[in-house]
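Encode chain A's predicted structure.
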Amino acid sequence: MNEAKIQLSPEELILVENAEWILTKNAIIRKVYDLFGAMAAAMKIELQNNPLSPDVMETTPKISRGENFKGLPFVVLDYPRLFNREDVFAIRTLFWWGRYFSVTLHLKGIYKELFASQLKKNESLLSDNDFYISSSNDEWSHELGEENYISLNRNRDFLQKKDFSRQPFLKLSAKIDLQNWNQSEKLLMQIFKTILQSLHY
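Encoded structure for chain A:
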């Protein structure tokens, strides 16, 4: 075995001897779960006030987590969530360690066909609220970088010109910085409400 591969740098030695940063990380992840749990309850109320199709309304919130989204921990709240091979309607709230929070509308199949024209009508609402649209061929790519997403605010009328019949899915996303943690529930719910508003006439 190559000993250089298993030896620790001075910085790594400091971390491996310090349990507190892992315990702090675990505490933060628990707080994200609490945040997303509170949001799920508020989202249910918003959906009742702004109902969508019955199959979407019947879904239940799901919170899950992982340790390796581009090497970093994450927590996901999917609600509403309707995933099958051909059709998707989902709103995904993501906490990505060291990066940001985001809320993403994911449409595919019949739901893309149902809502694409309505979203085009509400393009100004989405661009004014700093939404991005996916430009990736990978519908499971969530990183809001220039290689995957286009800013609607910087590309006015992009939605109007887009031919969604040539793309199997449609994803719109907005994010907030982790520095806004203490206002995160309010800000994330504002994004969620904007998405619901953009789907209605």
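Residues 87 and 110 are 6 Å apart (CA to CA).
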